[in-house]
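Morning run. Coffee first, then this:
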Amino acid sequence: MSESKPNALQRLLSLACDIHPREVTATLTSFLLVLILMGAYYLLRPLRDAMASDWSDAEVSWLWTFTFFFSAVAVSLYGTAITRIRFHYLVPGVYGFFAASFVLFYLGAASDQHPVVIDKAFYVWISVFSLFHISVFWSFMADTFSKPQSKRLFGFIGAGASVGAIGGPAAVTLLAGDTGTQPLLLVAAVLLVLTLPVIALLQRQKNTVLHNEEVHVGQGDFDYVGGNPLSGFVDFVRNPYLLGIGLFIFFYTAISSFVYFQLKNLLADYDEATRAQIWAAMDLVVNTLTILIAAFATGRMAKHLGLPFTLASVPVFIGAGMLMLAAAPMVSVVVAIQVARRAGNYAISRPAREMLFTAVDRETRFKAKPVIDIVVYRGGDMINAWGFTALTQGLGLGMAAVAGVGAVIAAVWAALGIYLGRRFNGMKDDGPAKAVTAVPAD
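And here it is:
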């Protein structure tokens, strides 16, 4: 199909990514969708993280353990829903469900009964939501855009997440001190409801504007994804390509756990409202930095330097930071690593990782992908949280020694990124590769 002449908007967007005229509206709609989703999450993230400083490392490790098991149950239920709910209603149904859950938490918090239990339940639930909402979004993106389009556009679309992640913390820093934190639950619920018409619009644009009817396996958008509800778990453990993606995430969680626990302990002397504002301010800095990288660099890195380089770049940078921390174990270095880790993940690693899923079929995207994004991620959190607790409280290791362990993990993480990028490059460029759902021959 021939491309129309670029208009002013497309020329403007071309400064950030290599976009074709017929892709402009769908790309901007996707940008808006993830902006709203991340705005809702980042309203609630500082509330969750502020609570953690009231609890010991062991208590938080137990909460991360509960989060892992709840995540496994949630993904299993989601796999069942995929086989019973028409695909057209699946994505909006997920976000409508979470919106209703936030209203229930608001009512529970307003009742002022069992506040500690409600706080810990909220901590676990937001930890499940934090991965579920974005995993479903990127599954939706992989089912909307083709593999070549993902290389050019996912970096820019990912920048929409950073814009939303700026608005959420900004609202917390302005509102939390005056109105308290409970009303933010209702604001987040309203934002999730606003995503429903945006999703419907993008579902139409896939066929009417992008003409990407072939970018899925099945007979149409109104069909069931089908299959066994637990096939996502089976596909994950049988498929070396998917196992590699899972390990890539596991190594990321190892670094994340180390930095998170250090910051949690450093903020223990502050009250909860102040902690929420500090976490929100950190989010604001990270996501402001992320926008420039995601909008102007990620797509070009993937296209010109290749996916192996793109996937390995953040692990190499973090490994260097860990070596610096081992040599100079200071709080300022921990904060710098936290900013670099999160900005690098949002701007580079996450969009690059999502490109890997454009090479698999629809059932894998919507069944195995949540297993990787949620169960493996939270399993990594759980294992690494207890590992950090064992290293610090059990063996008595200091910040420098644990940073040395982190540097080794980052090196393996980088090597795995190169491997995954090369595997991806060896797959077909004309749509999802159905053979990836079987066990590939090495």
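Residues 217-222, 429-442 have pLDDT under 50 and may be disordered. Good start to the day.
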